[in-house]
């Protein structure tokens, strides 16, 4: 530790390196959370690409809209969103705090308290945004189902989700991410992703320097 850095610690302040590490890891973590959440939010849309401008037959769209409303009951949507975001953010936060530099900075109670408030704020903002955008997502899901399933197929799906088992699936599916096995898999995934970022950034800087034939300032760690 360089001279003066210990004094900053005594005062409960972050070193420049620790502050930069906190922000750097958080900037990388947000896209990671989106990448993990995205397949869950649009799991019904399948893997095939379909142009959003493609026409959707009105009877299929009506059937698909009813199906989506049954799968995501209005009375349960907020709870489902909160459950999903809690699971995603908890895993992401655990991965961030597991980084040695971050763990070192968070040994200071004041720093930990501030950072925890920041994380709580991000979790709430993410949940609020997803809830606010829910009508648009429901419309998009309805159109996606309508493109991929015929009216009879949608009727069969509706019949399933109208059964006790179907309703149980609809309620529990958003909480699958909180299953211990999946949480552990996500944590390992994020840990490995964070570990490769420094090398990836260096590689990017080197490629840019070669392309531009001039030095490029590397982002501070």
Would you write up a description of this structure?
The protein is an all-alpha fold. Helices cover 75% and strands 0% of the residues. The model is unreliable at 1-12 and 31-49 (pLDDT under 50).
Integer average pLDDT = 75
Count of helical regions: 10
> What does the radius of gyration come to?
23 Å
Helix content: over 70%
Count of strand segments:
0
Offer a concise description of the structure.
The protein is mostly helical. Helices cover 75% and strands 0% of the residues.
Which secondary structure elements does this structure contain, and how are they paired or packed?
Blueprint: H1 5-10, H2 16-41, H3 58-71, H4 77-97, H5 100-105, H6 109-132, H7 134-148, H8 151-161, H9 164-173, H10 180-212
Helix pairs in contact: 2-4, 2-10, 3-7, 3-8, 4-6, 4-10
Keywords:
221 residues; mainly alpha; 10 helices; extended; disordered N terminus
């Amino acid at each position: 530790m360089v001279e003066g850095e210990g004094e900053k610690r005594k005062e409960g302040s972050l070193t420049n390196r620790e502050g930069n590490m906190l922000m750097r890891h958080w900037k990388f973590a947000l896209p990671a959370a989106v990448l993990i959440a995205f397949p869950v939010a649009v799991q019904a849309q399948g893997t095939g690409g379909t142009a959003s401008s493609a026409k959707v037959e009105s009877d299929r769209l009506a059937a698909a809209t009813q199906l989506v409303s049954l799968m995501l009951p209005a009375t349960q949507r907020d709870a489902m969103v909160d459950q999903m975001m809690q699971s995603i953010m908890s895993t992401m936060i655990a991965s961030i705090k597991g980084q040695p530099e971050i763990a070192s900075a968070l040994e200071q109670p004041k720093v930990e308290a501030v950072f925890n408030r920041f994380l709580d704020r991000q979790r709430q903002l993410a949940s609020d945004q997803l809830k606010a955008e829910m009508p648009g997502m429901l419309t998009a899901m309805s159109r996606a189902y309508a493109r991929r399933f015929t009216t009879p197929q949608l009727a069969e799906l509706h019949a399933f989700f109208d059964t006790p088992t179907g309703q149980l699936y609809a309620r529990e599916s958003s909480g699958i991410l909180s299953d211990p096995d999946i949480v552990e898999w996500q944590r390992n995934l994020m840990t490995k992703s964070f570990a490769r970022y420094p090398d990836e950034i260096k590689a990017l800087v080197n490629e840019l320097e070669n392309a531009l034939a001039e030095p490029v300032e590397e982002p501070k760690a």
